[in-house]
Design goal:
Mean pLDDT of chain A: 93
Number of helices of chain B: 0
Number of strands of chain A: 12
Radius of gyration of chain B: 13 Å
Radius of gyration of chain A: 13 Å
Shape of chain B: globular
Low-confidence stretches of chain B: none
Strand content of chain A: over 45%
Distance between the termini of chain B: 37 Å
Oligomer: heterodimer
Mean pLDDT of chain B: 94
Distance between the termini of chain A: 41 Å
Largest sheet of chain B: 7 strands, mixed
Helix content of chain A: under 10%
Order of helices and strands of chain B: EEEEEEEEEEE
Shape of chain A: globular
Structural class of chain B: mainly beta
Structural class of chain A: mainly beta
Order of helices and strands of chain A: EEEEEEEEEEEE
Number of strands of chain B: 11
Largest interface: A-B, 27 and 28 residues
Chain lengths: ~110, ~120
């Protein structure tokens, strides 16, 4: 069965500093990986995805993620954090066996301090 | 371009009652998935509808059922509500020829509280 782990419940970073939100996964086949962000009382907003090809994926709002097959990781990064980036971030995975369902991690609360 | 819409925004029910939640997919999308997000947790897949049929189901009891209409909108029905059904219910839509590489776009959710 596929699974996702987000080892940090909370990440704090100062505004202007780089941020990293960690994600590791487990799947049977090739992974298809996604990052979503959730603001309070809102649904999930798509940031980026990795399907195949370049291991560095660029997404919305200056976010990027690095796929590392050997470490089974897909960490979310941003070179310079903004206070407005403060939100709940979810990593999700899908493989050809699950096809239609996304399996989500438990989420990481990012707080960017001014 | 309208995104995914859900109604109602909030709902309060008592144990044993039944509830219906509604979802309209993003324009051009024909596939609808439903997820349950309990407080402090990530969303969990309930089921997916395509061509008015349930195409895949997660680990949820038969109390959870759904429907998709010819205009691609969808309903989630939950019978015999339990306290543990209190959660944010999220609807996601995806485009035609959906597969494991497509992106699911989420609505704002319906907050269900069971008393």
């Amino acid at each position: 069965a596929q699974s996702v782990a987000q080892p940090e419940d909370q990440v704090n970073v100062a505004e202007g500093n780089p941020l990293t939100v960690k994600c590791t996964y487990s799947v049977s086949g090739n992974p298809y990986l996604f990052w979503y962000v959730q603001y309070p009382n809102r649904g999930l907003q798509f940031l980026l995805k990795y399907i195949t090809g370049d291991n560095l994926v660029k997404g919305s709002y200056g976010f990027e993620a690095e796929f590392n097959k050997s470490q089974t990781s897909f960490h979310l990064k941003k070179p310079s954090a903004l206070v407005s980036d403060s939100a709940l971030y979810f990593c999700a995975v899908r493989d050809y066996l699950s096809a239609r369902q996304l399996t989500f991690g438990s989420g990481t609360q990012l707080t960017v301090l001014p | 371009d309208a995104g995914v819409t859900q109604s109602p925004t909030h709902l309060i029910k008592t144990r044993g009652q039944q509830v219906t939640l509604r979802c309209s997919p993003k324009s051009g999308h024909d596939t609808v998935s439903w997820y349950q997000q309990a407080l402090g947790q990530g969303p969990q897949f309930i089921f997916q509808y395509y061509e008015e049929e349930e195409r895949q189901r997660g680990n949820f009891p038969d109390r959870f059922s759904g429907h998709q209409f010819p205009n691609y909108s969808s309903e989630l029905n939950v019978n015999a509500l339990l306290l543990g059904d209190s959660a944010l219910y999220l609807c996601a839509s995806s485009p035609p020829v959906s597969g494991y590489t497509d992106t699911q776009y989420f609505g704002p959710g319906t907050r269900l509280t069971v008393l």
